[in-house]
Specification:
The chain is α/β, with parallel strands linked by helices. Strand 2, helix 3 and strand 3 form a beta-alpha-beta unit. It is globular, with a radius of gyration of 16 Å.
Amino acid sequence: MGDRILVLVRHGQSEWNLKNLFTGWRDVGLTDNGIGEARTAGRKLKAQNIRFDVAFTSALVRAQHSLDLMLEEIGQTSIPVFKDRALNERDYGDLVGLNKDDARVKWGAEQVQMWRRSYDVAPPGGESLKDTAARVLPYYIQEMLPRVLRGDNVLVSAHGNSLRALVMVLERLSPQQIVAREIATGVPLIYRLNADSTVAEKRDLAA
């Protein structure tokens, strides 16, 4: 695909994904299935013959472990890796640790859906997607995008909402469009950027 490659991958299934719990910044590990998803993502990337120059991940172990597994599969474990809380999952505040069904019983399905899927309504003590974007995007612009634009191939292992913030910018989606967008676990999204940072090509390796 040429240079200026940015690859986004949501971590594999976590233990709390499996239990249907709000996770946010809580540090939980991957399930066996999640480990398999990360390894599969690595094998898919290996088949693309992309030579990565650098990788970025969050401060949370599920994203870091997923990255380690992917790099192991593609045989590129020696590249520089930058870890930063700017790429952490959205903070769900008072919802963290709660079963999503129990939260619907406590606050009502409509309210919980508003917290989960609106762009700018935050749960009590937590972040909205807009809040998440406010920390993810400056980090992207300052640390990641310059590397891509100078021709580096960059791999990012992060979370559903931190990646949605990036996808919103890359694909020029509205707040209404991005709230309906799902980011599947362990599925690489490959973007090739133009010199002006717009997207020249996108590939979804879900198949």
